[in-house]
Design goal:
homodimer; 332 residues; HIT family, subunit A
Chain lengths: 332, 332
């Protein structure tokens, strides 16, 4: 019998259709391993072909926008938003609009074209997380902006237009719909129980163990109970934290579990395309008791994302408990 | 300057990024025109290869599950849900679940493998709409079920696994998330104003005319103000109707505008892949003053649907007003 499961965080129901159950090998798509060759604007030596750098970690005595960097943040060359201008909020009858003021940046995670977040030395993953943190910290000073959405499209299928590993940041004058939904549900839960919803989920998942993908001292990786897609995995801090931030002044443990999870996915699904997004509290409500930041990783394995778009209703052919087991047993 | 627009029905914000503005020719993907050849379980003569028919429009003196039909509804051979069994609603700590009881049916819209909803004689579109209506009317008698979601995946990119034109119905013991969201927003609007939100939208759109794609006496096709995707188009009844139903005891005018809209899309975008979904009131609240049924058509033109999945946040490179103009000016 298939099962309908409700994701308590988003409020969304999902069909877990075990009769259509599939093993990882049913999902294999062209591997996202890197090839060299061809011009790449993100490779060292081509710094002049991107907008100027906003932030870089680079060797002493090297100039901005020249080689010598290990991590580089630049404006997106084709930005969806513009940083200059007024919000000019207005209505037109039943409709509401705001000028498209915001930031659209690209985080180039390593100079090495052949590496990815799962294969690069751990330091690059740590530095990427620092870059996220520094850019959020800077952008939140801008009173026009309410949220910085950080995401990664890995592989062409997942929306990446350039192969060289990178993530993106979009800073917005509004809070994205899904984050707002998660915050609303979390707030209602807190109002009813005086406890954080995701803290309760984590405690329950640690007790049962069956959807745990991995953990270390500070973080846990889980297959969500009502996963939308096969091998969807969330990475979360074990203690309550409302906003993305370093732990003990570093990102070592977070980098470790994030990279381990990506390695597990690579192993089980042969380097699949994926998206990840960081869900954290909005700028104006950074410290709160009810919302719990996390990273959602969604491998892009199925084509059947058709009507899901328009209905908010998902059919997942893989039991999250089985996906978690495959991931745990992966020899990485 | 890009613009952020809020869709009042879903409550979702969208970036309309005009700087990235694209013309229809920028979106051309492999045309979805049909080819003959190869085995097709939906073609006449192969009726025995599908589950038995639930409903068919067929010539007198022909037997079920043999040729002679013009429209045929069968159970999905790989159903996401099962029609037999109890709901067995239960909780497990913070999690909620329900047995996957429901229906998953396929509506084969014409016996002719080479036709589509945009090219077939209008009668086939009318009959398809009647099939939707009859199946919903039948399934709503089942007290376990709350909603019938009707959708179409046209083209492999949009999720169709068989080329022969068909739509699908999934009947569920819950209301899909997006429909629930739309109903909640519509109810709040009605509580504040004593008017239907979508009625107000339609009146405003008729006044301005700039996002009107087409209309006839009873129905209108619109590019939504905050379209998620280029050339997204909604078809709606002009007068208030909370549930999908015939008008003057027929579907002639609805079939006409639906087919005309699909022809316009085919002309402007060279027979693109698309999804459509019917959003109508749930079984238990069929007649109400606040929700307005409609069909949402989403051409699948862009690959950048990566993080949109996880954030509920969309970037649309085409101004809805321009999409509507291209559609209006299409010579069909």
């Amino acid at each position: 019998m298939p099962e309908l499961r409700k994701d308590p965080v988003s409020g969304r129901w999902v069909i877990i259709s075990v009769e259509r159950g599939k093993r990882p090998s049913d999902f294999l798509s062209p591997s996202q391993k890197r090839k060299s060759g061809g011009f790449c604007p993100f490779c060292p030596g081509n710094e002049h072909t991107t907008p100027p750098e906003i932030l870089a970690f680079r060797n002493a005595n090297t100039l901005p926008n020249t080689p010598g960097w290990t991590m580089r943040v630049v404006a997106n060359k084709f930005p969806a938003l513009q940083i200059h201008g007024d919000l000019n909020k207005k209505g037109e009858g039943v409709f509401d609009m705001i000028n498209g003021v915001g930031a659209h940046e690209v985080i180039i995670e390593t100079p090495d074209h052949l590496q990815s977040l799962s294969t690069a030395p751990l330091k690059f993953v740590e530095d990427t997380l620092w870059a996220f943190f520094f850019r959020i910290s800077d952008l939140k000073k801008d009173a026009r902006l309410k949220y910085a959405l950080i995401f990664k499209n890995e592989g062409e299928v997942a929306g990446a237009s350039l192969e060289h590993t990178h993530s993106q940041l979009i800073a917005l004058p509004i809070v994205p719909h899904r984050v707002k939904e998660e915050m609303d549900n979390s707030r209602r839960y807190y109002d009813a129980k005086e406890r954080c919803l995701i803290c309760d989920i984590i405690n329950q998942e640690i007790d049962s163990g069956k959807r745990v993908v991995g953990e270390n001292d500070y973080y846990i990786a889980l297959a969500p109970f009502a996963a939308r897609d096969p091998f969807e995995t969330w990475v979360l801090p074990k203690r309550h934290e409302s906003s993305f931030s370093p732990r003990d002044k570093n990102f070592t443990q977070l980098a470790e579990i994030l990279q381990r999870t990506l390695k597990q996915l690579d192993k089980v699904l042969d380097t699949p395309p994926y998206n990840f997004m960081l869900h954290t509290s909005p700028f104006k409500d950074e410290q709160n008791d009810y919302y719990h930041w996390h990273i959602e990783i969604l491998p892009r394995l199925t084509k059947r994302a058709g009507f899901e778009w328009g209905s908010g209703f998902y059919i997942n052919p893989t039991l999250p408990e089985e996906a978690a087991r495959f991931m745990r047993e992966a020899k990485i």
